[in-house]
């Protein structure tokens, strides 16, 4: 029997607010959950997504990594990532879904969102705890966005954009202190490496390929990766391949051979051995977990 496709939600499919464009949704989280009771999990988004919790218990996952729900937590997701929720108590907070060009309409830099570590597409960097002393300010910013989204005020979208960018900047200041102390050149080099992995992981699997594109030696790139992430450059490349394999495995109608081909493995057997070595189970067992 064919399994259903993994749903991918667009803003158009979720927007019930006639005062908003189809570029953004802003709401109190409890109301959003009430309106969208038919959300299926796991799922993908075709937009950027953030949630700030003011209360609640349970967990959520980003690309198969689980995080506990806590008051003061804000998380971000990029388009295409896999998401699930499992709340134990009714959560409260704010949710904002937006397209990149909604923010970029106010900016000259089309790659502005890439400045923020939580938009790098790495799940462990996408969940940030806001200190208690900073939470009233965060609450005010998000409340302003929700309030403005329900008006027809002149230039309301520009005010929403300004508040949203301020949310990004305030959050970035509370990311891991180790990263903020990192040499700016090294931090930029790592981010460029991660972006290249995102673009080329299907075709290039060796550190030397990426080192050549970055005009550094493989040893330097490997040392940099270990120093800043705790993982070797080879592990970062491999983890991205493994992540895409997981995404494809729960996304229904493509068979194992098709996934192996999509990820440029020599054959189905080689892909299965790769997956079991690093995930601990076969692709079939992993897929069955999400039926």
TrEMBL record:
InterPro entries: AraC-bd, Homeodomain-like_sf, HTH-like, HTH_AraC, RmlC-like_jellyroll, Tscrpt_reg_AraC-type_HTH
Positions of the HTH araC/xylS-type domain: 191-289
Keyword terms of this UniProt record: DNA-binding, Transcription, Transcription regulation
UniProt KW DNA-binding keyword: yes
Pfam families referenced in this protein's UniProt entry, alphabetically: AraC_binding (PF02311), HTH_18 (PF12833)
Family annotation (SMART domains): HTH_ARAC
SUPFAM superfamilies linked to this entry: Homeodomain-like (SSF46689), Regulatory protein AraC (SSF51215)
Protein name as it appears in the record: AraC family transcriptional regulator
Organism of provenance: Pinibacter soli
């Amino acid at each position: 029997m064919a399994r259903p496709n993994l749903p991918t939600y667009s803003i158009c499919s979720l927007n019930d607010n006639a005062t908003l464009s189809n570029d953004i949704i802003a709401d109190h989280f409890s109301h959003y959950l009430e309106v969208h009771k038919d959300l299926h999990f796991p799922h993908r988004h075709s937009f950027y997504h953030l949630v700030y919790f003011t209360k609640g218990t349970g967990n959520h996952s980003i690309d198969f990594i689980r995080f506990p729900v806590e008051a003061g937590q804000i998380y971000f997701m990029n388009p295409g990532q896999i998401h699930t929720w499992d709340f134990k108590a009714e959560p409260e907070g704010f949710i904002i879904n937006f397209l990149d060009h909604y923010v970029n309409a106010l900016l000259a830099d089309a790659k502005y969102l890439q400045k923020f570590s939580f938009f790098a597409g790495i799940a462990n960097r996408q969940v940030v705890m806001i200190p208690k002393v900073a939470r009233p300010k965060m609450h005010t910013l998000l409340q302003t966005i929700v309030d403005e989204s329900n008006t027809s005020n002149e230039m309301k979208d520009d005010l929403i954009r300004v508040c949203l960018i301020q949310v990004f900047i305030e959050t970035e200041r509370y990311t891991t202190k180790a990263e903020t102390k990192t040499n700016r050149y090294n931090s930029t080099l790592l981010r460029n490496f991660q972006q290249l992995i995102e673009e080329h992981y299907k075709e290039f699997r060796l550190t030397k390929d990426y080192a050549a594109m970055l005009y550094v030696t493989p040893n330097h790139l490997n040392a940099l990766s270990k120093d800043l992430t705790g993982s070797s450059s080879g592990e970062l490349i491999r983890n991205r391949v493994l992540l895409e394999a997981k995404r494809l495995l729960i996304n229904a109608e493509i068979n194992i051979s098709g996934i192996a081909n999509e990820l440029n493995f020599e054959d189905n057997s080689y892909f299965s051995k790769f997956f079991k070595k690093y995930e601990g189970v076969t692709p079939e067992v992993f897929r069955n977990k999400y039926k």
